[in-house]
Specification:
Blueprint (H helix, E strand, L loop, with lengths): L10 E3 L2 E4 L16 E3 L5 E5 L5 E7 L3 E6 L4 E6 L3 E7 L4 E6 L5 E5 L4 E5 L5 E5 L1 E2 L2 E2 L6 E3 L5 E5 L16 E5 L5 E6 L3 E6 L5 E6 L4 E8 L3 E10 L6 E6 L5 E5 L2 E5 L5 E6 L6 E7 L5 E6 L2 E5 L3 E3 L2 H4 L6 E2 L10 E8 L3 E8 L5 E10 L2 E8 L6 E9 L2 E9 L2
Antiparallel strand pairs: 1-2, 2-4, 3-30, 4-29, 5-6, 6-7, 7-8, 9-10, 10-11, 11-12, 13-14, 15-16, 16-17, 17-18, 19-20, 20-21, 21-22, 23-24, 24-25, 25-26, 27-28, 28-29, 31-32, 32-35, 33-34, 33-36, 36-37
Length: about 400
Amino acid sequence: MICFLIYKILKLRNVIKIFPVLVISIFPFSKLFPQFIIDKDTGLEEIANNILQPEGPVWNINNGLLFSDIKGNKIYKWTKENGKDIFLNNSDSTNGLTYDLDGRLIAGQMGKRRIVRFNKDGTQTSLADHYNNKKLNCPNDLVIKSDGSIFFTDPDFNIPAGQQKELSFNGIYRISPKGILQLIETLALPNGICFSPDETKLYVNDSQAHKIYVWDVVDDSIIVNKKLLFTIPVFGYADGMKTDSIGNIYCTCSNAVWIISPSGEQLGKINLPENVSASNCAWGESDKKTLFITAGKSVYKIKPAITKIDEHKLSNNNKFVLYQNYPNPFNPITNIDFEIPEQSFVSLKLFNVLGEEIKILKNGILQSGYHSVTVNSDGLSSGVYFYRVESENFTESKKIIINK
């Protein structure tokens, strides 16, 4: 096993601090497991502070970064140009934040024990607040699937003072695109939740046990084959988590972000300042390659400290492979990657849900190997599309979502 270490000397630049970062990357050469290198220019920057309890970061090209302040009862907005501003006062203690396919903010609202949608006219719509005529516990973290359904966790910590728990369990739920609430699983203390990039796997952590579980997603609506993926080897509570473009899981726990492969191997971790407990993370900025981390009373950002040596170039290059675009949903830019085993005439096209051709992305003879095509959403409306790659002996399509 080989370890790489990075240590950056503390710097001060106005209100932005660059902290020491310790990142460990481990890989066995014998397995030819995809290798990892350290980005030597990586630095952990504190971009906002004096927040009572930061949580639920989410990035949107129009708003920049939004994040909750649970105890402060606010949602903040952060941009490079203006820094931290109040986005919403009296948020009823929102926790996890995300956007639906129409670009509306969705939140776990702990003060009202519900999942809420913030409409663009300023009103709020409750999407789920009761199950079997009993109040939900305290909706925590959530994720939107590409069909528009919402998956969320409902642990029983942080139930408002003076109120009682009404359900006898802590659940993982799905709200269908038609608004139907479905209990899909129970867990001791479910917290962070995310999908694999192709949405065939659902990851949820059991917070107090600091265990990450994985399920297979069937028919977009049920989860089966529960497996323990990884136990974080540290005292503390597992919290919010996200996946990256190649399916690695970034899970906040104690004073670090733990990086776990889809097969359950620890790839490394991003250490935060001492005595700071990480609560959540989210990808953002125009390329969706910056990781924003809420922790302690601050928000940090970092370019991924572990970057993968192109696994496609390590392959035997003996088959045609079409990968899921990333990011997805996206706005304004995403990338479609594919690999071809030999020189071929290849077409890559974008279609709407009616099967009508919208745009030709690539059309010509390509050399064997790995190819990446950048797609821009300019001139296209929000919604579901499909991209299809064709060659003489291969045809495959995948779903792509624009979220403006």
